[in-house]
Amino acid sequence: MRERPRGRDHAVHTQTAAELDEVRVEARHSAPSPELPRATDGEQGGRGVEQRIAQDALDAVFVSVAPEDQAAVTEDCLRAGAHVFVEEPLGLDEADARRVAATAERHGRQVMVGFMKRHAPLYRRLAELAADEERFGRVVSFHGFFAFAPWADTLRDDTYLKFGAVHILDLIRGLFGEVAEVTGFRNSRDADISMALTLRCASGVVGNLTLAGVPAWSREQEELTVTGTRGFVRADNLTALVHRQVPGAGEGPEPAEAWQGLTEQTVLTLSVNSPASGGSQDLYLRGFAGEVSHFLDAVRLGTVPVGSARDNVATMALCDAVLDLPRI
Q1: Tally of CB atoms within 10 A around 327
Q2: 224 close to 234: Cβ distance less than 8 angstroms
Q3: Cα–Cα distances in angstroms (integers) from residue 59 to residues 19, 52, 132, 293, 294, in the given order
Q4: For the chain, which ranges sit under pLDDT 70?
Q5: pTM of the predicted model, to two decimals?
Q6: Are the C-beta atoms of residues 317 and 166 closer than 8 Å to each other?
Q7: Structure confidence at residue 259 (pLDDT)
Q8: Strand 240-245 relative to strand 231-236: parallel, antiparallel, unpaired?
Q9: Which has fewest Cβ within 10 Å: 9, 17, 110, 305?
């Protein structure tokens, strides 16, 4: 495995790989550099990547470079015969995403985009609960909230969405299926970001999302409530899950009237608060460990990973649709 780092993400992936002890990190290179030119430098960049991959006989490459370079670097790696794990965004719009997906399919290599929330233990448990139709019932709606303070004065709707909130949009697709329609408004001013969305999924689930990037939310906040006809589940900041389901047959007392007994069961599930992780807990709770392990399994087994290049096309199309909403 080779990693091409940018900012904080590359350190996360290197630490995760070491934590899992599932892969040998052959080398790491930053771009731009004399050894690994930027992919946007044309043929020189492509040859540099191909030479490195061939020289080290790499099976897979982890790509985390400048967002505008990631699609081109990924394509260079694919042409060189490597499987690719790439940080989001893979492409800056739907057209970029489609081009990379076609390149991956043409060269018969796997590409996985780093949408780690699909692999976070809390959301995986939420998905399991909501899938129990007997006890949870039919999923009918969701309400989500995601907010953090802007990381730069240059933040705008497109960078906020594609470098941050894209994780939430992808998660919604993963949980409820493709989004058939999105409506709403954007109320952003410069780096102060505000969006209110209503989504209708092809599965029949409807929901709303409030997305914000303002200084008030210096403490990042992430919430998702899912309602079924017989239960609900509420996720809070990746560490707490509250759920209520109708008891199954033979579970608990069955009085003539529900109010005559203790029939309500609401369960609170929390992450363990312990120093035993040695600082690695965040890698697991946020889904970094899960996504890296899933990618490595896909490479070994030759299976299509969750969050593939082709799947990413729909996520980027959803981002484009949100950015087309009216701004007030």
Answers
A1: 12
A2: yes
A3: 20, 12, 38, 15, 15
A4: 1-47, 248-254
A5: 0.88
A6: no
A7: 79
A8: antiparallel
A9: 9
